[in-house]
Every structure is written in C-alpha cells, then in structure tokens.
Amino acid sequence: MADTMGHSATANRNTSVAIGFCLLAIAPQIFELVWSIGTIFGWGAGRGPATVLISHATALLASAPAALIGAIGGDTKKASSDVLLALIYSYPIFVVAILTLFMTIKSAQDYIGGIVLMALALFALWASSDLQGMRGFSFGAGTAPRMFGGLLVALGAGIALTGLLTDGPAMAHYAWRGPLFVMVSIVFFALAIRPLGVVVTAFASFLIAAMGTHETRWVEAIIVGACLTLGCALLFPYVLGLPMPMFPRFLAQ
Amino acid sequence: MFDLFHNLGLGFGVVFQVSWWSPWWLYGLSLPISINILMCLIGALVGTLVGVLPGIGTVATVAMLLPITFGLPPVGALIMLAGIYYGAQYGGSTTSILVNIPGEATSVVTAIDGHQMAKQGRAGPALAIAAIGSFFAGCVATVLIAVLGAPLTKLALAFGPAEYFSLMVLGLIFAVVLAKGSVLKAIAMIVFGLLLSMVGSDIETGASRMAFNIPELADGLGFATVAMGVFGFAEIIRNLDAGAEMNRDLVQQKISGLMPTRKDLVDSTPAILRGTVLGSILGILPGGGAVIASFASYTLEKKIAKNPSRFGRGAIEGVAAPESANNAAAQTSFIPLLTLGIPPNAVMALMVGAMTIHGIVPGPQVMQKQPDLVWGMIASMWIGNLMLIIINLPLVGIWVRLLRVPYRLMFPSIVIFCAIGIYSVNNAPVDVILAGVFGLVGYWLIKHDFEPAPLLLGMVLGPLMEENLRRALLISRGDWSVFLTRPLSAVLLAIAAFLLVLTVLPALRAKRDEVFTESEN
Predict the structure, then answer these.
(1) pLDDT tens, residue by residue, B165-224
(2) Structural contact between residues B165 and B398, judged by C-beta atoms closer than 8 angstroms
(3) Does A117 touch chain B (CB under 8 A)?
(4) Mean pLDDT of all residues in B289-294
(5) What is the pLDDT of residues A83-122, one digit of tens each?
C-alpha cells in the first residue's frame, strides 16, 4: 500500500516536471506573443499577435516536421527563423519532457538545473543560427557561439544525468514574496526614473521593495525611505556630478 | 633590487602627491590635501562598512561605485576601488567574531573560532589578532606584488595569442578546481558565462550576435549589470527567503582589553605566517581569490595542530590564519591583473571595467606606459593597510552599532542604491531591468546549487579568449596544433589538463570537499 502511494506520488511529480518542460519548450514563442500584444497599442515595432500566433503554430505543427522529413530526404531548403526555433529549441525539449515521464529522478535539483541549462544553450544555438560559420580556416561570427553552445548542451545533459543516477537534494523551496516585490520595485524604478525623477522614484521604489517582507513597520520604513531619498538626491547629482532628473517632468516645466 | 626601491619610491611619491585646494568659502585661502590618500581612506572605510554589513558583498559594492569614479582622476579611482576590496577583508572578521554571521564570504570560517572566543569574553584579542594578521599579510603581499610585478611583465611580453589563450584556459580550469561543489556544474557555469559574453557585436566582423535587434544589447551585456544582478539582487532575494530578521546573537558585553596576551601572540604567529604564504599563492592563481584562501588555511591549521579538538572552541589560530590568508589573497590577486591584464576573479574583473572607463587598457604595457598608476596603487595598498589597523580597532564600537540596523530597513536601501548605481553607468533604464532579470537568474542558480563566481569569470574572459583564439588560428592558418607546438602554451595546457584530471580523481575530490564542508560542521 505504502509502496504504491509512494510510486504514484513520484509519478505525479514527474508529470508536473514534464508539463513544466513543455511550457519551457514553447516559452520563447509565448514570450513573443505576449510582447506582440504591445504592437496593437503602437508600442514598438514587430509582428502583430495574430501573425505571431499563426506563424509559430504552423512552424511547430506543420513546417518543422516537414523540414525534418525533408532534411532526412536530402532536401536542404532554407528554413524560416520560426521553423528553426521549433527544430533547434522546442523539439529537443519536448523529447526531454516525454522522456522525463519514464524516468526516476533521484535529484530533482540537478536534473531540472541541467535541463534548463540545456534549454538555454539550445536557445543560444538558435539565436546564433543566422550567423556566418567558418570561412576557410578563419572563424566566422557564429563559430564561437555555436562551439560554446554545443558544449553547454553536453554539460547540461551531463548534469541532468547525474541527477538521474546519483542521489541528491530535491527541489529547493521558492519564496514568492521577496522576489516579486524586489522585482516590481526594480522595474518601477527603471520605468519611472526618466519621467518622474530621482525624488519620487527612489521613495516609491523603497516602499515597494519594503513590501518584500511581512516584518516591515510602515512608519519606520517611511522615515528611513525619506531620509534615503534625500541622501540620494544630494549625493548623486550634486556631490558626484552625475546628471539625473530630480523632479517629475510635468512639475519641472 | 635598486629598481624595486626606485619603483616603490615613485609609488609613494604618487600617493603623497599634494594638491592645493581652495574652495570658494575660504576666500582665496588654500589647503594642502592629498587626493590619493583621501581616496585610499574612503575606499578602506567603505570597504570595512560593506565587510561588516552582512548581505552586501564586495562585488556588488564595487559595481555600485563604478559610476562614482567617473569624475575622479584614474589613479585615485583605482586606489579607492582597491581599498574597498581589502578593506572588506578587515570588516568581515568583525561581524564574524561578534555576531557569528559572516559579514563577507571570505570570513565564513573566522566565525567558527572567532565567535567562540567572543563568547568566552575574549572578543578583544580575537579582533586584534585578526587585524594584526591582516596587516602583516597585507604588508607581505604588497612587497610580493612589487617584487613579482616587473619580471612577470617581461614574461607577459613574450606571450603571443596562443599563449594567452592557453593561459586563460588554465585560469578557467583553476576556477573549476577551486569552486565549491560539483566540477561539472562549475564548468557549465563557465561555459554559460562565455556564451553570455558573446551577446553583442562580433569583434571582427561587427555582426550582431544574439542581440535580437534590441539596440541596448548591441554593445553586449554590461559586466557591472550582470555582476550587480547575480551578486547584489540575487543575494537580497535569497536573504529575504530566510526571513528578514536574521538571528543575530550579538555579543552584548562590552569589549574590554583589546590587547592579546603573550601566549596569544606566540600561538598565532606561526599561523599568521602560514596563512600569509598560502593566501598569497592562492590569490595569484586565477579563479582563486580570498574565499578559497581562508577555507584552505583553516583546514591546514586544523590538520597540523597538535590538538585539533581545540578548533571550534575558540582556538586563536583559527582566527589568525584565515584572516591573514584572505587579506593576502585579496591583494596578490592584483598581480595577474596588473602584469598580464587577466582578471583572476570577479572583483578584479570590475577593476578592468574601472580601468577601461578611464581609458586604460589592462595588460603588460600598463606597467611601462603608466608606471605612476601601477606603483601608486601598490604603495597605496600598504598605506591603506596601515590606516585600517589604526582606524579600525577604535571604531569597532561604531561598526557594532551599525549591525543593529535591522535588515528590513537595510535591504530596500540596498535595492535603491544598486538601481541608481546601475542607472548612472549609462543613464539607461534598460540596464536596471537587465540587472533585475539577472537577479532572478542568480536566485535560480543559487536554488539549483550553481556557483555564480565561475559564471562571471567566464563572462569576463570570454571576449579575450575568443579574440586570442581567433588570432592564434589566423596566424597558424587554421592549424589547431599551434597550441601544442609552442612550448609555453603547451606547458600551460598540460598543467590545465593535469589539474582537471586530478580534480576528477576520487581521492582528491574528497579532500577538496573536505575544505568546503569545514564551515558546516
């Protein structure tokens, strides 16, 4: 009884890991899709969401298998960037995700770490696939990235393999509160520093970052934040002479 | 020998250079001040501060202060940044001894015996011995840099691209051998760093590599940005995991009687000597640096002690040796940077950044073209060490008070300082977001037990390595055997291969793990 329960527990974990890898396999596509929504509002240039969706879907479902079969048949036609992404990046990780279902993972920390590194390396291989390779005996722009990308794929696979073969720690626990608020504070700072100036931005970012822990006492944090803002406003632009906007643009004008 | 004195004389001349300062509020009166001494003092004090405060490391601090050095003369800027690095080694021991939390990664082992001594009411002698050991090691390391500098520079001039490439391979292998944990993971981190360094424009063809048409990436990922993310933001996020209120059992009783007894001095003298020698050697090796030096010297002391059971219960050698070793290593790691132009660790890599900001290309030619810069920096190290030992012991009380500042107030301040610091390097908001992203990457790396230090080393050496590899192959017309037929290069590669084999061998691996697990039990 206990044995079967244990077994089903690991199987459950493996499916969730495999689903995670599947998401990882189409992460760049999803990222581009989310990014492309911005073009509707006229931010940035790029393909619209509909084009992105159709292009990646056909690449993943039709063109890439076709290209794969074509390559085996000896037909070397120039594939588009989306098809290459599916071929170089997504398919290998789908394969890994499927294989994961049939494995016993001894150390999730190493296994997942290795696979994610492998994914990064595959992504780098795709990103440098449009660069020129060797020209005679001299290196092209793409030679070194491909060399190291290939090496990292092998190393990632090696680490994943140790995670399968040797016992080690399971996945570490991730907190959400600290990373979330610190990141929000950083992004807010980056977006606000130009339009709003040091004074407003530094103070607001301080308070956002302070939300990263539940131990924050607000009165104390507001006093310290105000002092820090005053210090920064004097130190950076005046003492160190680094040019920076001080106050919000609409007030300064 | 005469040259040495001449050079050191030049260096001290640079440091003591007096300029007249006439601010408007003195109505024409002028005050004599020495900018370089002032910079040295500021660097040493800031270094001690970050050393004392846990949760902010030297790498993040130096990265944060890089933009500040824009307005300074190059000598003063480098003197200040160097001061931060060795000042942090002094400061780290204070926290380790009094609070049992390492203020700095380099003083992790100091906490074991140092805090025990403090609990027995002997915090004063522990702090004093740590400072004396650091000072002695600092003096020896300064002389070593001065002695080794010139001959190594001559050797470096005989280096061609093939030799440079092999030397960097050796450096990266050292980084693997000396890194904590799995060898495979350390190599993977280096290769990841090499890949990151390829983002941006290709040096020869100018083709944009892996930049996805994002204009901000065309110049490549800034090293300071990545360092701040991986060592600054990631560290903060990680600390928040454990809860902001770290358990600080600060030694409450007043520290009385700084002077160590005669027995303390007799016990610690050989330990200081051994720590200095070991630290100096490990500091020069690429990939080494202060952290490994302190671990290794603690292990050595425990091995050769007549009564090893004293360790962990307040043995003064356990404070003296690692503290001397980390300070010696922090300073000798300048040797490869100043003579060969190759940074052996992350802090030195940031120094390369600082030199580039001021239009200095690090390498063997610096010592000949700008002797005042190099020797001024070397002389400043000795003066900085002297200042640290004089200032620090009386200031212990102030540092202790700073330790009472709760982390819940400190971490948002560090976030803001880091953000403003990165923003002001290029006035680019995108850099701040990139640093944040690398903060998350660093957090993930920590969670999966990957060491971030080899990643940064790979990232720094990446462009240099690729350039020399391509040049070497171009000269040899595509013949890879050039790395083995040139004698110097062959020797370097042979050492690298030998080291790698040794690390993988089980016997040595067990030894290497032993060094690192020392702090955990």
Answers:
(1) 888 888 888 878 777 778 889 899 999 999 998 888 887 777 888 877 777 788 788 888
(2) no
(3) yes
(4) 79
(5) 888 888 888 898 899 888 888 888 888 899 999 999 999 9
In a domain, B170, yes or no: yes
> Which residues does B263 contact at the CB level (< 8 Å), separation at least 6?
none
Cβ contacts from A onto B, under 8 A: 205
Instruction: For Cα atoms A34, A39, A41, give the angle at the middle one, nearest 5 degrees.
Output: 110
The whole-angstrom separation of Cα B338 and Cα B348 is 10
Query: Is residue B34 in some structural domain?
Result: no
Interchain proximity B408–A149, CB inside 8 Å? no
Using the predicted structure, report yes or no on whether residue A156 has a pLDDT greater than 90. Answer: yes
ipTM of the complex: 0.88
Q: Number of structural domains, chain B?
A: 1
Q: Cβ A232–B68 below 8 Å, yes or no?
A: no
Do B345 and B457 contact (CB within 8 A), yes or no?
A: yes
Interchain proximity A156–B188, CB inside 8 Å: yes
Between chains, do B408 and A174 touch, taking CB under 8 Å as contact? no
Mutation to test the B interface, candidates A196, A211, A242, A246, most B Cβ within 10 Å? A242
Tokens, residue B89 = 């080694």
Q: Is B241 on the interface with A (CB under 8 A)?
A: yes
Residue A159 forms contact with B (CB below 8 Å) = yes
Q: What angle, 0 to 180 degrees and rounded to 10, lies between the N-to-C axes of helices B506-517 and B487-504?
A: 80
Nearest to B290 by CA among B465, B29, B84: B84
Domain that holds residue B156: 42-520
Let me know if residue B477 belongs to a domain.
yes
List the 99-128 stretch of B: residues with Cβ below 8 A of A.
none
In a domain, B388, yes or no: yes
- Give the three-class secondary structure for B20: strand
For chain A, which residues make up each domain, given as ranges? 2-165, 177-252
Token pair 């100096």 is found at B280
**Residue type for position A250:** F
At position B56, the amino acid (one-letter code) is I
State whether residue A85 sits within 8 Å of chain B by CB. Answer: no
- For tokens 């171009």, the residue is B474
Q: How far is the first Cα of chain A from the last one, in angstroms, to the nearest whole number? A: 75
Whether A206 and B207 lie within 8 Å, measured CB to CB: no
Task: Please give, rounded to a whole number of angstroms, the shortest distance from the CA of B257 to a CA of chain A.
Answer: 35
* A73: closest CA of chain B, how far (Å): 30
Convert the pLDDT of each residue in B325-360 to its tens digit. 988 988 888 888 888 888 888 888 888 888 887 888
